[in-house]
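User: quick one, sequence for these tokens?
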């Protein structure tokens, strides 16, 4: 994709809003959706809706339907069919095969309990990637050092496993050339996935229960959907360094980015599902006017 100057859009603008149907949307979601829809509208582009529904244990059909209803109630429009990640596992498997052919993946048989125990015994403190991370503490690389025989034994025993990116090998394949990406807020950025190696360890690219993960899916989806601008919260700024590395390894051109501030409530707390932020569903069923909410969001 040929990119224009950092502050001007390319010829074809495509943005996306990609919620997970693991609960009801709140005002923070509405704000992010509006930023994407507004940017696309102002540049004669397209605003897409995508469902990140790979978490089979938490995603529910009623939440997905509520997302459609909430966004339509607020006046958003999007083309159909909506891409649902659970229906495109073959796309993620193809990307995994590409990375595996480069020798960049290895099976991880560890449980979270085992990872935490090893971290505790090693004497260093765990970190998390962004506040919303569900990936747990920094992975110490336990299964990276298993011999082929040990891996085969665990496979034969039926031990569940995830697939992790061998960051050391991935960084070696990147070489000495700088990876860059452009943020419409922060300007030109140099990707430093080396930092993530200390924060996250070897990232999970395929979970034990499904052959993909957030990091892999979002990179593949944005590429296949030809997203020109990824407009999302600044809580994902750090993750973009990893996503830029994955784009390089898979041969994808990077989109432009904008990491926006997170909407907060009257107490200065960011809206979050886990904090039981008041949902758009509640506001809608209570009879609040969508025009008033949109005014609140856009201000």
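Assistant:
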């Amino acid at each position: 994709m040929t990119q224009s100057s950092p502050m001007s859009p390319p010829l074809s603008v495509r943005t996306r809003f990609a919620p997970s149907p693991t609960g009801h949307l709140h005002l923070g979601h509405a704000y992010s959706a509006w930023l994407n829809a507004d940017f696309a509208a102002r540049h004669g582009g397209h605003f897409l809706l995508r469902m990140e529904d790979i978490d089979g244990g938490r995603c529910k059909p009623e939440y997905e339907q509520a997302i459609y209803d909430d966004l339509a109630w607020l006046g958003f429009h999007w083309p159909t069919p909506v891409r649902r990640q659970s229906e495109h596992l073959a796309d993620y498997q193809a990307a995994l095969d590409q990375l595996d052919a480069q020798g960049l993946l290895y099976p991880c048989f560890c449980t979270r309990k085992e990872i935490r125990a090893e971290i505790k015994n090693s004497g260093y403190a765990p970190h998390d990637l962004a506040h919303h991370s569900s990936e747990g503490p920094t992975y110490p690389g336990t299964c990276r050092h298993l011999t082929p025989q040990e891996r085969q034994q665990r496979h034969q025993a039926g031990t569940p496993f995830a697939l992790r990116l061998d960051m050391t090998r991935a960084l070696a394949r990147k070489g000495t050339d700088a990876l860059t990406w452009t943020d419409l807020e922060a300007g030109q950025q140099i990707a430093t996935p080396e930092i993530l190696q200390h924060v996250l360890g070897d990232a999970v690219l395929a979970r034990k229960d499904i052959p993909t993960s957030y990091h892999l899916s979002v990179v593949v989806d944005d590429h296949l959907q030809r997203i020109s601008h990824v407009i999302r919260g600044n809580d994902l700024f750090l993750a973009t360094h990893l996503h830029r590395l994955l784009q390089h390894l898979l041969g994808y051109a990077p989109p432009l980015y904008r990491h926006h501030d997170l909407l907060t409530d009257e107490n200065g707390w960011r809206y979050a599902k886990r904090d039981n932020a008041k949902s758009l569903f509640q506001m809608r069923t209570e009879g609040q006017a969508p025009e008033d909410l949109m005014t609140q969001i856009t201000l």
